[in-house]
């Protein structure tokens, strides 16, 4: 797709409101990039739960998080082991996100370092963190680089990107989703001004608006 076509498809998508989706990503960025926050573990529990996609409606009521739908871009409320690691403020999840730079290029080495520490959080557990939970955190930190791939968008994404949805793993996520995205003309397009600039800053995460069933 060209940038013009991408922008049109995202804005006309049936998968929820365009501006409100951007608001969720902008709020996540403001939480993660606050002057008082050095790492994911510095956030309070509700902020961590919001970014992880596991916060409940009652929990966010009356807080700064209330007006945002944190279930967009991959709700992880059913990922019990992941939820426990967020509640426990597992240091490995924070260390993992520290490998992803806040601005500039994200390399395959950055990504692999993230995955290595992310997996350490689930050491000794029968259930491991997978692509959905890992990519949720990545998409919240760098929505210009990553998309959360879960059961609601995986099938449609696989059709356009050509990967096998049933066998998606961490290696494939980078080589068959992120690398092709970074080679696309819409991703490489220069940043526009205005509201389109906000979309450009979140252009990979916003693929969810196109592909979510």
Summarize the structure in words.
With 213 residues, this protein is an all-alpha fold. The chain has one domain. Helix content is 53%, strand content 0%. It contains 13 helices and no strands. The chain has helices at residues 3-11, 18-32, 45-52, 57-60, 80-87, 91-98, 108-120, 131-141, 154-161, 170-182, 185-188, 195-201, 207-211. The longest helix is centred in the first third of the chain and has 15 residues, at 18-32. The protein is globular. The model has no long low-confidence stretch (mean pLDDT 94).
Overview in brief:
With 213 residues, this protein is an all-alpha fold.
Give short descriptive properties of this protein:
213 residues, mainly alpha
- Termini Cα gap: 20 Å
Average residue-wise pLDDT: 94
Number of helices: 13
Low-confidence segments, ≥5 residues, pLDDT <50?
none
- Helix proportion range: 40-55%
What is the H-and-E element order? Answer: HHHHHHHHHHHHH
The number of distinct structural domains comes to 1
Integer-rounded radius of gyration: 16 Å
**Main β sheet profile:** none
Given the C-alpha coordinates, what overall shape results?
globular
Helix/strand/pairing class, anyone? mainly alpha
Please count the beta strands (DSSP E, at least 2 residues each): 0
Percent of sequence in beta strands: under 5%
